[in-house]
Amino acid sequence: MHELIKTNKTIPFMRFRWGAWLVSGFLLIASIASLAVNQLNWGLDFTGGTVIEVGYERDANLSEIRSTLDSNGFPGAVVQNFGTQKDVLIRIEPQEDVNAQEVGESILQLLKNTADGEVTMRRIEFVGPQVGEQLTEQGGLAMLTALICILIYIAIRFEWRLAIGAVGGLAHDVILTLGLFSVLGLEFDLTVLAALLAVIGYSINDTVVVCDRIRENFRKYRKGDAEEIINGALTDTMSRTVITSLTTILVLLALFFLGGALIHGFATALLFGVIVGTYSSIYIASSLALALGVSREDLMPPEVEKEGEDLEMMP
Amino acid sequence: MLNKFPLWKNLMVIVILAVAAVYALPNLYGEDYAVQVSATRTTVVDTQVMGQVEETLKEIDVTPKAMALEDGQLLVRLSSDSEQLRAREAILQALGNDYIVALNLAPATPDWLEAMGATPMKLGLDLRGGVHFLMEVDMNEAMRKIVGQMRDTVRLDLREERIRYSSVERDGNDVVVRVRKAEDFADAVRVLDRAYEGFVLIEDEAAQKITLRMTEAKIAETKDYAISQNVTILRNRVNELGVAEPVVQRQGADRIVVQLPGVQDTARAKEILGATATLEFRLVDDENSVREAEQGRVPFGSEMYPNRNGGNVLLKEEVILTGDHIVNASSGFDENQRPQVNISLDGTGGEKMSLATRDNVGKPMATLFIEFKATGERDANDNIVFERHEEVINVATIQARLGSSFRITGLDSPQEAQNLALLLRAGALIAPIQIVEERTVGPSLGQENIEMGMQAIIWGFVLVLGFMVMYYKKFGMVANLALASNLVLIVGVMSLIPGATLTLPGMAGIVLTVGMAVDANVLIFERIREEIKANRSPQQAIHHGYDSALSTIADANITTLIAAIILFAVGTGPIKGFAVTLAIGIVTSMFTSIVGTRAVINAVWGGKRIDKLSV
To answer: Domain Protein export membrane protein SecD/SecF C-terminal spans what residues (chain A) (predicted)?
Structure first.
């Protein structure tokens, strides 16, 4: 059989945990700093405003479009290619004095009149500022609710130290992905928010598999301290972790390259999130649980002990 | 030991997959270009219309693939989009404005599948092209109107009882009454305490102040009314647009979603949706003859208007009252079980009506409905030309002096009463609406999105299949079988659930599911490998592998499901689509990768002695 990871020995993962803490700590601080300084490049869904995507017959002349818009009462319009050289995306911030609902049509008309050759409307989106504000609130709330629900579920199914480790790992993934979007200035729109929740879903999947093994090994092996047990569990699940990440990354690459410009942000967030999520389920979740002092006694099934006592009491 | 599934388990797997396959099947047949003819409020689509359409198509040399009359709608299937456009043009000309002729894409599902209720997945606007509007109802305005009306009524009632007040003013959702003299306070309370519906009285004798406060129930009712009124009006207007399968839906407390698939001309859509309608009550000029007016001799001081039920009516020029004074109109029955419409006016409206009807008891009064409709043409300045469309919707005899609430009786049917009430309300929007979000997707982009989404799904699928066979050999092939069945199951379930819509992020969700669904099999197969390493027999390895992986898989998937459900609860439109495919994918993948693969593995390897497993 093929094996990605060939080992009969336990890999001492936890020995390197201080290094991992250092790396993660640095990345977290960098992400938070970037979020504080650069903030996020909020997409239309959150800021409100108008986006117009048009298709030209030939490669579009962006500077000409810019000057046309400038001289016709739309200064400060962001004009960029979208996907191909022929497609142009124009974004206009919400304006106070003009009737925002008509901005899209008037720009489309303007471009049709000034361009030589056909201009096709591909997409017009208008979002009122009040809708955007609500969305930001709802999005943040959704993220928090998801984390809390998962925390409760794992605390009930496993143990509170593992639950905190798992949710700590999730928060780590979310913050780093947000940081990536902030550092690179990628647009953060609704699909990216969805991707973040999918990252939470994926990363928790990974973490649960590891936690499950940690619990199982604690019960199975009577010897060994917490660090050894965790190392063993991580080694046992290593090849599964790598393979699942690999297949997921494979499909995400397909999505990234073939899915089109509209879901580029989505694919980027997930690709990065899955890689970070894989790392965090190995290092952050379990080492956090270890630091919190998870031990064999915490993970023993209570029913079994009771049954044992009953048996001893019998004459 | 041997690994065998009981017969019922094998049957269950087969039946579930077969059912899913049947319901997924319609998605393979694609769609026909079609023209859909439906009736407006005054007409019906019957076999006669069908014959007329058939004639028209013959004239322009277009042979339809099929024609069907169903639920009062005629669906003409055509073989190309150019034929579709020509056919629509010709049918529109032949039938005139009394019918709605819309372009549509009709699923080309074979009859035997349709008979089983199998239909293709619904596509979201980002894949189909079309317009999505989110409208917000101005609730403050609605409240302002209701409370303002209350203030007018209170003033009128106090004046009638000759109680002198220093002020009656609106304060938020309250009406505050200040009495001039202390001795009037008790009288004022007595008058106002006759319980205005939906208001409670708060007395403050020291300040000589009485506050009428709107109850929570009344506030909720008012808001509800404002929304449902707007929904009704929008529905009527959307019908005028000639759109196949439009959606007009309430969303949350004060918003309305309007989705118009296939519509590209948003300017026109917006103008029709935003068109204002108004009403006028006028006295009928019964001294002059309509016939003479029809010949061009309209008497001075009168105007002629068409009657909704045919013919013309001569009306006096003076307007008694305009529709913005109407607060509510509802249909019902009178003491003799005859249909009627109840109308309530605001305070000023009541006074005007009372004044105008005092000297005209016994005379006929008409209700004139005025609507601005976009004609679809543009003037020299490229502005859309509006047409003022006026018609008399009702003529009734004034039985007595009317006040702020009166009724129109003598209607022919409950249906007519309902229509009249609807039109009266349409002319009296209590709260204006505003577009707060608009998304238009062109047809070329929609098609492109579908193609790119499909490409991503196919490539992702192929890559994962290749990897699994390479890594897990024959067991990998079993996992691939599960993966393929999983895709069929997702499509089948999506087609079955009426509310599920496929969007571009939804397609991304399917791609992601393909990548993550193998996880369960990876977990199981890794366990089996471990068991083999621990020197268990192949059959024991299979058994223990599945058993010990089960709880892990369940825990991992339930936590992901939690994230998907929260996404569904919070998201809108395309994001909801993503959450739906993700959640469905999690459930179906658990079934195929645990039960499905076990059935295959048991059938192939489970029933015999083997020494080696290809895993």
So the answer is: 110-293
